[in-house]
């Protein structure tokens, strides 16, 4: 029987295996830009860094390939998926397609528990955004985690686990661009998050869709106007 630990809800859960931990670390290192776009992933060099064997690493990188985070080069091995303007546009369009639909469903079905998740997640995000606006850039990764938690909370009552899983994967690919190219629009983005919160509490899905579209398009405009990509 595996060792057990207690999660925040009091339930006993099995800790992640070494291979699963390595998968999460590599995935996170790609999303947050510690492994750079186009970087060749040499198994021998990765092995000491992540503490797993060659076969486990090959399995992890193969698993990350259909997620769009790694590309396989046939006999030449693996590399971190490259970034491009066209890829970002496609990912942004997919995010909007999935998230807007989930947003409408979630606003229709959300209960008080859902409202609580939305309010709590926005509170953390707003506090961290205020810190960033004050000039503290030391918690960028935590900021994006809270950003994800807020957007995930907004759609969490949509009623479809499959849709949430697809949204999660697309969001992570979108997030990689934000982290690699340091896309932070400051007060504009923070105000859009506040407006989305207000829409959620009023169940105004139509206005929320428009704000979300402006939110994502603003990110693209910022990247392209500043020639980050």
UniProtKB/TrEMBL annotation:
It holds the Pfam family GntR. Residues 16-83 form the HTH gntR-type domain. The keyword Transcription applies. The keyword Glycoprotein does not apply. It comes from the Bacteria. InterPro entries: GntR_C, TF_FadR/GntR_C, Tscrpt_reg_HTH_GntR, WH-like_DNA-bd_sf, WH_DNA-bd_sf. Keywords: DNA-binding, Transcription, Transcription regulation. This is GntR family transcriptional regulator. It comes from Bosea vestrisii.
């Amino acid at each position: 029987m595996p060792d057990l630990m207690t999660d925040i809800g009091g339930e006993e859960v099995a800790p992640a295996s070494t291979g699963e931990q390595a998968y999460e670390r590599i995935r996170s290192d790609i999303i947050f830009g510690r492994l750079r776009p186009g970087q060749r992933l040499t198994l021998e060099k990765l092995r000491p860094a992540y503490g797993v064997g060659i076969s486990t690493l090959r399995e992890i990188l193969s698993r990350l390939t259909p997620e769009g985070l790694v590309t396989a080069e046939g006999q030449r091995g693996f590399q971190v998926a490259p970034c491009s303007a066209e890829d970002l546009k496609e990912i942004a369009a997919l995010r909007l397609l999935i998230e807007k639909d989930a947003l409408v469903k979630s606003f229709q079905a959300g209960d008080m528990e859902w409202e609580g998740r939305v309010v709590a997640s926005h509170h953390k995000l707003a506090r961290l955004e205020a810190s960033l606006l004050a000039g503290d850039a030391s918690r960028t990764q935590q900021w994006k985690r809270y950003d994800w938690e807020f957007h995930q909370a907004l759609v969490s009552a949509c009623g479809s686990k499959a849709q949430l899983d697809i949204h999660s994967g697309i969001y992570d690919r979108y997030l990689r661009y934000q982290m690699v190219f340091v896309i932070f629009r400051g007060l504009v983005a923070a105000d859009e998050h506040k407006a989305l919160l207000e829409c959620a509490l009023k169940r105004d899905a139509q206005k929320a869709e428009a704000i979300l579209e402006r939110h994502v398009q603003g990110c693209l405009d910022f990247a392209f106007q500043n020639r980050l990509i």
